[in-house]
């Protein structure tokens, strides 16, 4: 049986086919949860936001127009939700602790990991430390750079599509990614040079 | 080596964001330039480091929560009739229609209570139809009074100068003041 494209499935959802919606849900739930987890740093909030994306997709099904790739539309919804969540979190933190700078970071969220081949305690600590450094470095990037890095690196979204999602030019996306990688290279220097990879 | 590429160009090459022709030029240069190969290796190394940020698995109840949220929203939607009306765009034409209907009803009530507002021809028709009854006598008297009022009113309306200075006339001292 041929794998149906997201667009075909969504057109069926528009006609009221709930089974096609289930296929889209299964196909995109993990990437979306990961996207939000990396954007907002809180697995529980990431799940809520990913669920909200699917809810919005379902509610907007009758108005869906296949003008762009389905994932562009999906991640545009996700990007708006993520941006609102980040702003809300910053506002709440500022209300509680006063203004926060660019390097604002929240407490480290508990990261649920995929089951692995039972690493030793030491290996787990090293891995946790490395992830903490990466997460902190990515979270400290300006919003648009962070969006671009997460979409490109972790969601494997093409830079042309990222341009549509973020509503900027393709050259702007290349520039955003370049500046982000330069910053990350400096911040993750210990991991690059220290041989802890 | 001369003619080295900018870091941004090398970065775009490393992340496969260059068009075919540009990609070819960078590839040819990098094959001969150790410095540019070193820059490329830095970006590839960083990319590998970023890979170690592991993925999350959605919780087992993720799908059921989505379905539950959808069910809640569906329940809160208007009834079938409400949705059908909404699809017809009733609010676009129903509101003006209701206003027009109210105007007609109010006008009918006013005309009914003040028969003199009807044209004379209509009044005579009404009068001849109800001749002889006490109510009709009252109606004829009131019709006559209204006709006189209208005649006087028309004469007054003709005097535009007086209307223009109406406020001034009100301010004039009354006799005996």
Report on the structure:
The complex is a heterodimer of chains A (197) and B (177). Chain A has 197 residues and is an all-alpha fold. Chain A is built from nine helices and no strands. Chain A folds into two domains: 1-100, RNA polymerase sigma factor, region 2, helix turn helix motif (Rna Polymerase Sigma Factor, Chain: A); 118-197, Winged helix-like DNA-binding domain superfamily/Winged helix DNA-binding domain (Arc Repressor Mutant, subunit A, Orthogonal Bundle). Chain A has helices at residues 6-14, 18-40, 43-59, 70-97, 121-139, 143-154, 159-166, 170-187, 189-193. In chain A, α2 packs antiparallel against α3 (43-59) and α7 (159-166) crosses α8 (170-187). Chain B has 177 residues and is mainly α. Chain B contains ten helices and no strands. The chains are: A mainly alpha (197), B mainly alpha (177).
Keyword list:
heterodimer; A: 197 residues; mainly alpha; Rna Polymerase Sigma Factor, Chain: A; Arc Repressor Mutant, subunit A; B: 177 residues; elongated
